[in-house]
Amino acid sequence: MQYFLILLAFLCGAVFPTQAGLNAKMTKLVGHPVLAAFFSFLTGLIGLMVYALVARIPLNTLAECKNAPWYVWLAGLLGAFYVSTVIVLMPRLGFALTFGLIVAGQMCISILFDHYGILDTPVREISFGRIIGAVCLVVGVVLIRKF
């Protein structure tokens, strides 16, 4: 099961550059990155709705959304920021540098989230190995930028 999850995470990472490229093409067609992001989210919403219906996911708990803390609603805004920013950056910086920087940023903040157990996640303390791993990612981004 662990290998399947690792493969799934790898495939998820591979989807992001593909999504960015498709969104960049949509931007050229509609003339603005925010409109391209809107259409990206719209098709994602439709896809999720179809999946929920086909998979017969019970929707009776939707009313519980009103009990969610205010900050969980920021996830949608953060997703919109991410998609819109990638649409703007990718054609200017290229796939490798854009996603190298994104992965480096994800890893640095993820190490902090793990260390402090932010958002009710298990605590995984910062270690020398984790810091070296993050530094290697940043060095990789510098090398991608330079060459």
Short overview:
With 147 residues, the protein is mainly alpha-helical.
Label this structure with key terms.
single chain; 147 residues; mainly alpha; 76% helix
Total strand segments? 0
> Given the C-alpha coordinates, what overall shape results?
globular
Largest sheet entry = none
Poorly predicted sequence stretches spanning 5 or more consecutive residues: none
Q: Which percent range fits the helix content?
A: over 70%
Category from helices, strands and their pairing: mainly alpha
Count of separate DSSP helical elements: 5
Count the domains: 1
Q: Hey, roughly how much beta strand do the residues contain?
A: under 5%
The mean pLDDT is 93
- Rg, alpha carbons: 18 Å
Textual characterization of the structure:
The chain has 147 residues and is mainly alpha-helical. It has one domain (14-146). The protein is 76% helix and 0% strand. The protein is globular, with a radius of gyration of 18 Å. The model has no long low-confidence stretch (mean pLDDT 93).
Write the layout of secondary structure elements.
Layout (H helix, E strand, L loop, with lengths): L1 H29 L2 H22 L19 H20 L1 H22 L11 H19 L1
Helix pairs in contact: 1-2, 1-3, 2-3, 3-4, 4-5
